[in-house]
Specification:
Elements lengths: L3 E5 L3 H12 L3 E6 L2 H7 L5 E4 L5 H6 L7 E4 L5 H13 L5 E4 L3 H9 L4 E3 L1 H14 L3 E8 L2 E7 L9 H4 L1 H5 L2 E13 L2 E9 L13 E7 H14 L1
Parallel strand pairs: 1-2, 1-4, 2-3, 4-5, 5-6
Antiparallel strand pairs: 7-8, 8-11, 9-10, 9-11
Bound molecules: adenosine-5'-triphosphate (ATP).
Length: 233
Protein backbone atom coordinates (compact mmCIF):
# COMPACT_ATOMS: atom_id res chain seq x y z
CA UNK A 1 0.00 0.00 0.00
CA UNK A 2 1.32 3.43 -0.94
CA UNK A 3 1.63 5.67 2.08
CA UNK A 4 1.08 9.40 2.10
CA UNK A 5 3.52 11.58 4.04
CA UNK A 6 3.81 15.28 4.74
CA UNK A 7 7.33 16.62 5.25
CA UNK A 8 7.25 20.09 6.77
CA UNK A 9 10.51 22.04 6.72
CA UNK A 10 12.88 21.29 3.88
CA UNK A 11 16.28 21.98 5.41
CA UNK A 12 18.99 19.39 4.74
CA UNK A 13 17.31 16.84 7.02
CA UNK A 14 13.75 17.36 5.82
CA UNK A 15 14.83 17.33 2.17
CA UNK A 16 16.68 14.01 2.61
CA UNK A 17 13.68 12.44 4.37
CA UNK A 18 11.34 13.62 1.59
CA UNK A 19 13.72 12.51 -1.19
CA UNK A 20 14.15 9.03 0.32
CA UNK A 21 10.40 8.56 0.79
CA UNK A 22 9.81 9.63 -2.82
CA UNK A 23 12.52 7.27 -4.09
CA UNK A 24 10.81 4.47 -2.15
CA UNK A 25 7.59 5.15 -4.06
CA UNK A 26 5.67 7.03 -1.35
CA UNK A 27 3.49 10.06 -1.98
CA UNK A 28 4.94 13.15 -0.36
CA UNK A 29 3.40 16.51 0.38
CA UNK A 30 6.44 18.79 0.84
CA UNK A 31 5.86 22.06 2.69
CA UNK A 32 8.13 25.00 3.39
CA UNK A 33 7.58 28.71 3.70
CA UNK A 34 10.72 29.38 1.64
CA UNK A 35 9.96 29.56 -2.10
CA UNK A 36 13.47 28.38 -3.06
CA UNK A 37 13.12 25.21 -0.98
CA UNK A 38 9.83 24.47 -2.73
CA UNK A 39 11.35 25.09 -6.16
CA UNK A 40 14.16 22.66 -5.33
CA UNK A 41 11.80 19.77 -4.54
CA UNK A 42 8.88 20.52 -6.87
CA UNK A 43 10.14 18.22 -9.65
CA UNK A 44 10.17 15.12 -7.47
CA UNK A 45 7.51 15.65 -4.77
CA UNK A 46 3.90 14.55 -5.32
CA UNK A 47 2.83 17.99 -4.06
CA UNK A 48 5.13 20.88 -3.14
CA UNK A 49 3.51 23.78 -1.35
CA UNK A 50 4.89 27.06 -0.14
CA UNK A 51 3.04 28.13 3.02
CA UNK A 52 3.44 28.90 6.68
CA UNK A 53 2.72 25.54 8.30
CA UNK A 54 1.46 27.18 11.50
CA UNK A 55 -1.55 28.31 9.46
CA UNK A 56 -4.23 25.62 9.80
CA UNK A 57 -6.30 26.97 6.93
CA UNK A 58 -3.32 26.80 4.57
CA UNK A 59 -2.62 23.21 5.61
CA UNK A 60 -6.26 22.19 5.19
CA UNK A 61 -6.33 23.79 1.74
CA UNK A 62 -3.68 21.26 0.66
CA UNK A 63 -5.41 18.33 2.42
CA UNK A 64 -2.62 17.86 4.93
CA UNK A 65 -5.14 16.22 7.26
CA UNK A 66 -5.19 13.19 4.91
CA UNK A 67 -1.56 12.19 5.38
CA UNK A 68 -0.67 8.96 7.19
CA UNK A 69 2.41 10.45 8.84
CA UNK A 70 3.64 14.04 9.20
CA UNK A 71 7.37 14.68 9.62
CA UNK A 72 8.11 18.07 11.18
CA UNK A 73 11.71 18.85 10.35
CA UNK A 74 12.27 22.26 11.87
CA UNK A 75 15.10 22.44 14.37
CA UNK A 76 16.39 25.95 14.86
CA UNK A 77 13.02 27.67 14.90
CA UNK A 78 11.70 26.00 18.07
CA UNK A 79 8.60 28.16 18.30
CA UNK A 80 7.59 27.25 14.74
CA UNK A 81 8.08 23.52 15.34
CA UNK A 82 5.86 23.68 18.46
CA UNK A 83 3.14 25.69 16.73
CA UNK A 84 3.16 23.38 13.72
CA UNK A 85 2.86 20.25 15.85
CA UNK A 86 0.00 21.86 17.76
CA UNK A 87 -1.74 22.67 14.49
CA UNK A 88 -1.25 19.14 13.14
CA UNK A 89 -2.66 17.67 16.36
CA UNK A 90 -5.70 19.95 16.15
CA UNK A 91 -6.22 18.74 12.59
CA UNK A 92 -6.38 15.17 13.89
CA UNK A 93 -3.14 13.83 12.37
CA UNK A 94 -2.36 10.80 14.48
CA UNK A 95 1.19 9.98 13.52
CA UNK A 96 3.76 12.75 13.88
CA UNK A 97 7.56 12.50 13.88
CA UNK A 98 9.47 15.64 14.78
CA UNK A 99 13.09 16.71 14.71
CA UNK A 100 14.51 18.48 17.75
CA UNK A 101 17.83 20.21 18.36
CA UNK A 102 17.55 20.57 22.13
CA UNK A 103 16.17 18.27 24.88
CA UNK A 104 13.71 20.92 26.08
CA UNK A 105 12.28 21.18 22.55
CA UNK A 106 11.98 17.39 22.40
CA UNK A 107 10.25 17.31 25.78
CA UNK A 108 7.69 19.90 24.75
CA UNK A 109 7.05 18.13 21.46
CA UNK A 110 6.53 14.82 23.30
CA UNK A 111 4.09 16.51 25.69
CA UNK A 112 2.17 17.80 22.70
CA UNK A 113 1.69 14.22 21.56
CA UNK A 114 4.46 13.70 18.99
CA UNK A 115 4.91 9.94 18.53
CA UNK A 116 8.66 10.08 17.92
CA UNK A 117 11.19 12.83 18.52
CA UNK A 118 14.52 12.50 16.77
CA UNK A 119 17.76 14.34 17.45
CA UNK A 120 19.77 13.86 14.24
CA UNK A 121 22.80 15.89 15.27
CA UNK A 122 23.05 14.40 18.76
CA UNK A 123 22.59 10.85 17.43
CA UNK A 124 25.22 11.31 14.71
CA UNK A 125 27.63 12.75 17.30
CA UNK A 126 27.06 9.80 19.66
CA UNK A 127 27.61 7.31 16.83
CA UNK A 128 30.81 9.08 15.79
CA UNK A 129 32.15 9.14 19.36
CA UNK A 130 31.51 5.39 19.73
CA UNK A 131 33.39 4.70 16.52
CA UNK A 132 36.28 6.94 17.60
CA UNK A 133 36.61 5.20 20.98
CA UNK A 134 36.46 1.70 19.48
CA UNK A 135 37.83 1.74 15.93
CA UNK A 136 36.51 -1.78 15.30
CA UNK A 137 32.95 -0.50 15.86
CA UNK A 138 31.72 0.47 12.40
CA UNK A 139 28.13 1.34 13.27
CA UNK A 140 26.30 2.03 16.49
CA UNK A 141 22.57 2.22 17.10
CA UNK A 142 21.11 2.81 20.55
CA UNK A 143 17.99 0.68 21.09
CA UNK A 144 17.14 1.78 24.62
CA UNK A 145 19.26 3.44 27.30
CA UNK A 146 22.20 1.09 27.88
CA UNK A 147 21.39 -1.28 24.99
CA UNK A 148 22.60 -1.10 21.42
CA UNK A 149 23.22 -2.84 18.13
CA UNK A 150 26.79 -2.51 16.89
CA UNK A 151 28.60 -3.57 13.75
CA UNK A 152 32.08 -4.79 14.65
CA UNK A 153 34.90 -5.74 12.32
CA UNK A 154 36.38 -9.19 12.89
CA UNK A 155 39.75 -9.31 14.67
CA UNK A 156 42.60 -11.67 13.74
CA UNK A 157 41.83 -13.69 16.87
CA UNK A 158 38.25 -14.45 15.83
CA UNK A 159 39.13 -15.14 12.22
CA UNK A 160 38.82 -18.82 11.31
CA UNK A 161 36.54 -19.70 14.22
CA UNK A 162 32.91 -20.70 13.81
CA UNK A 163 30.28 -18.54 15.52
CA UNK A 164 29.85 -21.30 18.12
CA UNK A 165 33.60 -21.55 18.75
CA UNK A 166 33.93 -17.78 19.14
CA UNK A 167 31.86 -18.02 22.36
CA UNK A 168 30.86 -14.38 22.02
CA UNK A 169 27.51 -15.05 23.63
CA UNK A 170 28.84 -17.13 26.55
CA UNK A 171 31.90 -14.97 27.29
CA UNK A 172 30.60 -11.49 26.46
CA UNK A 173 26.82 -11.74 26.74
CA UNK A 174 26.41 -10.40 23.20
CA UNK A 175 24.17 -11.97 20.56
CA UNK A 176 25.28 -12.22 16.95
CA UNK A 177 22.25 -11.25 14.89
CA UNK A 178 23.96 -11.04 11.52
CA UNK A 179 27.19 -11.43 9.63
CA UNK A 180 28.27 -9.41 6.62
CA UNK A 181 30.79 -10.84 4.19
CA UNK A 182 32.53 -9.42 1.19
CA UNK A 183 31.71 -11.39 -1.95
CA UNK A 184 33.29 -11.14 -5.37
CA UNK A 185 31.45 -12.15 -8.50
CA UNK A 186 31.89 -11.80 -12.23
CA UNK A 187 29.48 -9.37 -13.85
CA UNK A 188 29.79 -9.06 -17.64
CA UNK A 189 33.37 -10.32 -17.50
CA UNK A 190 34.37 -7.91 -14.73
CA UNK A 191 35.17 -8.79 -11.15
CA UNK A 192 32.77 -6.93 -8.84
CA UNK A 193 33.07 -6.73 -5.06
CA UNK A 194 29.79 -6.72 -3.15
CA UNK A 195 28.44 -7.58 0.27
CA UNK A 196 26.31 -10.46 1.46
CA UNK A 197 24.29 -10.22 4.67
CA UNK A 198 23.26 -13.33 6.54
CA UNK A 199 20.78 -12.39 9.26
CA UNK A 200 20.18 -15.96 10.39
CA UNK A 201 23.74 -17.18 10.89
CA UNK A 202 24.15 -20.75 12.16
CA UNK A 203 26.63 -21.69 14.93
CA UNK A 204 28.71 -23.47 12.25
CA UNK A 205 29.20 -20.34 10.15
CA UNK A 206 32.91 -19.52 9.90
CA UNK A 207 33.99 -15.98 10.76
CA UNK A 208 36.68 -14.63 8.44
CA UNK A 209 38.89 -11.56 8.45
CA UNK A 210 37.08 -8.76 6.66
CA UNK A 211 33.69 -9.92 7.92
CA UNK A 212 31.50 -7.63 9.98
CA UNK A 213 29.52 -9.00 12.92
CA UNK A 214 26.23 -7.40 13.84
CA UNK A 215 25.84 -7.74 17.60
CA UNK A 216 23.11 -6.82 20.05
CA UNK A 217 23.60 -6.35 23.77
CA UNK A 218 24.34 -4.10 26.72
CA UNK A 219 26.78 -1.26 26.20
CA UNK A 220 28.90 -2.26 29.19
CA UNK A 221 29.30 -5.71 27.64
CA UNK A 222 30.27 -4.11 24.33
CA UNK A 223 32.93 -2.07 26.18
CA UNK A 224 34.33 -5.21 27.83
CA UNK A 225 34.28 -7.06 24.50
CA UNK A 226 36.11 -4.18 22.85
CA UNK A 227 38.76 -4.08 25.61
CA UNK A 228 39.24 -7.86 25.34
CA UNK A 229 39.66 -7.59 21.56
CA UNK A 230 42.22 -4.76 21.99
CA UNK A 231 44.19 -6.91 24.46
CA UNK A 232 44.35 -9.73 21.95
CA UNK A 233 45.92 -7.60 19.24
P1 LIG B 1 18.76 21.45 8.63
O1 LIG B 1 19.81 21.41 9.70
O2 LIG B 1 18.04 20.17 8.46
O3 LIG B 1 19.28 22.02 7.32
P2 LIG B 1 17.94 23.81 9.87
O4 LIG B 1 17.98 23.51 11.33
O5 LIG B 1 19.10 24.54 9.29
O6 LIG B 1 17.66 22.48 9.09
P3 LIG B 1 15.46 24.89 10.41
O7 LIG B 1 15.51 26.17 11.12
O8 LIG B 1 15.26 23.65 11.19
O9 LIG B 1 16.72 24.71 9.53
O10 LIG B 1 14.34 25.04 9.28
C1 LIG B 1 14.12 24.03 8.36
C2 LIG B 1 13.17 24.55 7.28
O11 LIG B 1 11.91 24.83 7.86
C3 LIG B 1 13.63 25.82 6.57
O12 LIG B 1 13.70 25.54 5.19
C4 LIG B 1 12.53 26.82 6.88
O13 LIG B 1 12.23 27.67 5.75
C5 LIG B 1 11.33 25.95 7.19
N1 LIG B 1 10.36 26.58 8.09
C6 LIG B 1 10.61 27.21 9.26
N2 LIG B 1 9.47 27.65 9.82
C7 LIG B 1 8.46 27.29 8.98
C8 LIG B 1 7.03 27.46 8.99
N3 LIG B 1 6.42 28.11 9.97
N4 LIG B 1 6.33 26.94 7.98
C9 LIG B 1 6.93 26.29 6.96
N5 LIG B 1 8.26 26.09 6.88
C10 LIG B 1 9.02 26.59 7.87
Amino acid sequence: MKRFFAVIGLGRFGYSVAETLINKGCEVLAIDRDEEKIQAISDIATFAVQCDATDERALKAVSAQNVDVAVVSIGENIEASILIVQTLKEMGIESIVAKAVAPIQGKILKNLGVNEVIYPERDTAIRLAHRLISPNVLEYLELAPGYSIEEVSVSDKLSGLSIGESKIRQQHNLNIIGIKKQVTRMVKGRMMVGESFNFTPSPDEIIEKGDVLVLIGREEDFDKFSDAEDDKE
